[in-house]
Automatic annotation (TrEMBL), chains A, B:
InterPro entries: NUDIX_hydrolase-like_dom_sf, Nudix_hydrolase6-like, NUDIX_hydrolase_CS, NUDIX_hydrolase_dom, Pre-Nudix. This is Nudix hydrolase domain-containing protein. It comes from Colocasia esculenta (Wild taro). Keywords: Hydrolase, Metal-binding. CDD domains: NUDIX_ASFGF2_Nudt6. Pfam families: NUDIX, Nudix_hydro.
Length: 379, 379
């Protein structure tokens, strides 16, 4: 099958990701690379705008003509500025599209279009793409062209994802089960465990939320922005809420939970930060109070005792201070398959350690791993 | 400000997440809890359907009347089955809504509606919600009601997110900057490093993708499903591709990268798995070949030498076999704030270790951490 968008990423390390047949939407095909550059648009001559789909084989296609900017670019102004896609000669402009790397095509509507004309062009384009053995068709509609959403759905497209300013619709031409990839499934958050060398942690009380008015001290936490490194997110949140500058040290633990919002999941990273400034200046709009608090005092709060994650964090912080806990440190890595850099988090202490003997574990490594020795909590 | 959806999750551990003022869309308000149960729908008497918004103060609202199932539930059949929302007495049905925990309201359209009638109801409803000092308004439109997308956008709503079967639109009533939360920003993948006690790893060659036909052996990898634990995703992908049953042991490392698809990011977890069966049965549709391969042979592939992530994985696997590398083990945790369970990944070996001395680090713990000693790669 085709590779997915994640494949394109993971291919950097593993060739390509494989996909379970059980979950159609997380599978293979990925057509939304706007870096693809081959336009497929042509002008299609048709005596009638109706029944184009059924008349596929009979259509005469003016080869080699590319669709100009006439109908799909230019002004993004009012909806009244409709540009016709059927010219005086009865020709239908095909939608300008770029090919992706996965035998698909991508259309981005950038100017107002009359829904009827859009549908005519879409039908004609689908005929051509079908003849060309294309697979996935992606149509990106900016929100100002929301009048085209319903017509697109009526042509058999469905929603792939939406962001505030646009919606992406998809269609699968082959008669096979589609292999389009899933949309993003997780949100990412980070909590900053900022600990100084007096074993004090930086804690806040918030002006809103479930713990408002309950006098419970918590770590600064926040949502990692789209496109933001976990490292940067943790440091930023601490700075915003408390005014404290800090350096990222390690990911001490992370939590995955589900159904956090709609049907999505979240990943929350508990990040150890080393302070490099110490004077607190709270974020007036959101923070009621902030202070450096002895770790023992933080851990002694009833809320920490009652809640497993908080208790783990307190235990880990204590272990870290006693130098018996190693988290995952960040390393910048690059790929030979693309220009993209990424951040890898590893146990750098263990990784940089000289192997104890260099010999193989005599009766199998797994007998010595935590999961076999019973030291690890089984789930 | 208001708490976010992540707050609702992270509140389980930290009270609530805080949000950067810099990024509106990842901030605070979260209104999409369909578990909220207070319907706010009423019937609004109006002599005229026009100018409802402008006539806000003059409207007479029939109090205490709840909107029945007449206009928003029932058949989800053809679009022709429009149910009128203006009755014989000139009353406008308000949209049935439930309140969320964040002073917002949620509308889910479950039956076909005429766009004009929908807009009338929406305008009337917005008047009422404004009077009620509501904040975020969420409208969930199943794809079969895509005819309502454009009218909703024209009323000032924008897209929050979309899944194949529906689109969620949002609106912010107060004159303040909105604090609605961002949509999911990451996809999650997992690779299974399945290693037996002969220091052999389970590797595959794929039938498609960037490495097709290149005779490069890679680990089984895949996309973690929405709502699926990383653990389960890794085990499932290995089973699907190779037929090997395996037990999850640890997360050995993880990678965050950006712009992997559209503008989204991805997180990829390298998971150590212990095999509990050994006879390979490949997934014919996607896998060209699979085998147990000596780790040294895997690491000796030119592709591994060239690519930093692959090289790290080989090094970590080697260190793990020599028992000098500890990853993050999973622990199931629960919350006192909700009934939800989650999975926390920690360095359980270090956490369960008895502290060496119990004394404070004499000159500050940070001097002993990897980042200060120079053992950790700085980024």
């Amino acid at each position: 099958m085709l590779v997915s968008s994640l494949c394109r990423s993971y291919a950097l390390c593993f060739g390509s990701l494989r996909h379970s047949p059980a979950a159609v939407l997380r599978r293979g095909h990925f057509g939304a690379s706007f870096s693809a550059i081959r336009p497929t648009g042509r002008k299609l001559r048709s005596p009638s705008l109706g029944g184009l789909r059924a008349a596929a084989e009979g259509l005469k296609i003016a080869s080699g003509r590319q669709v100009g900017a006439r109908c799909m670019s230019g002004s993004t102004g009012s909806m009244s500025a409709v540009v016709p896609v059927v010219d005086k000669n009865g020709e239908v402009e095909l939608l300008p599209a770029v090919e992706d790397r996965y035998e698909g095509v991508i259309v981005e509507v950038t100017a107002p279009m009359d829904p009827g004309a859009f549908v005519s062009s879409l039908r004609a384009s689908l005929l051509v793409w079908r003849q060309q053995k294309k697979k996935g068709v992606w149509i990106k509609l900016p929100i100002q062209h929301s009048n085209l959403v319903h017509p697109t759905v009526q042509e058999g497209f469905w929603y792939h994802h939406a962001e505030p300013g646009y919606i992406m619709l998809v269609y699968w031409i082959p008669s096979t089960e589609h292999t389009l990839p899933i949309n993003a499934s997780h949100r990412v958050g980070a909590g900053g465990l900022v600990m100084n060398d007096k074993k004090e942690v930086l804690v806040v009380q918030e002006k809103s939320g479930m713990l408002r008015g309950k006098a419970i001290w918590k770590l600064p936490t926040g949502v990692v922005d789209q496109g933001e490194d976990i490292i940067a997110g943790a440091v930023r949140e601490v700075k915003e809420e408390t005014g404290i500058d800090a350096e990222f040290v390690e990911v001490l633990a992370f939590r995955q939970s589900h159904k956090s919002f709609f049907d999505k999941s979240d990943l929350f990273f508990v990040c150890l930060l080393r302070p490099i400034s110490f004077d607190i200046k709270i974020q007036e709009s959101e923070i009621e109070a902030a202070q450096w608090m002895p770790l023992e005092e933080f851990a002694a709060q009833p809320s920490v005792h009652k809640h497993e994650l908080l208790k783990y964090i307190a235990d880990i912080a204590s272990a870290k201070f006693e130098r018996s806990y190693t988290g995952f440190s960040p390393v910048r890595i690059s790929s030979i398959f693309s220009n993209r850099q990424a951040c890898l988090y590893v146990n750098s202490k263990d990784l940089n350690q000289t192997p104890s003997s260099g010999s193989q574990a005599p009766s199998g490594w797994c007998l010595y791993s935590g999961i076999c020795s019973g030291r690890t909590s089984r789930i």
